[in-house]
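Deliverable D4.2, example record:
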Amino acid sequence: MLNGDLDWVAEVYDYPLSVFVEGNIRIESGPEDTATHLMLRREQAQNRGVYAMTAEVMQINRSANSSRFSVIVDYLFHAHDGVDIARNRSKYRCRSTDDGSIKVESLEFLNIELSFIEDARRARPH
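Output generated by the structure prediction step:
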């Protein structure tokens, strides 16, 4: 996402896509909505000093006899010097398709910790 390549969006998400953030629901009607939102988040992250991002799958929950499952992912956002400056945890509700691909049906931001960005900047030597 940070490099601006969003060609994959249409292949991954199922529309309309429900996005849950801090008690609010946003409905994205197509890949253009998702790409616009991701580009805005990219710009905001870069303006706050985010240089790179890593993700770690923390949990996969699959129901028996169902093509649907959820995936919980932790994201760490790093400054140019490698310092972790933010993190979030997201839950993706997904389904396996008949052709073997995976589609994300909804996304929920479970925990967004951007507030410690300023603390990390103050702690760094100038």
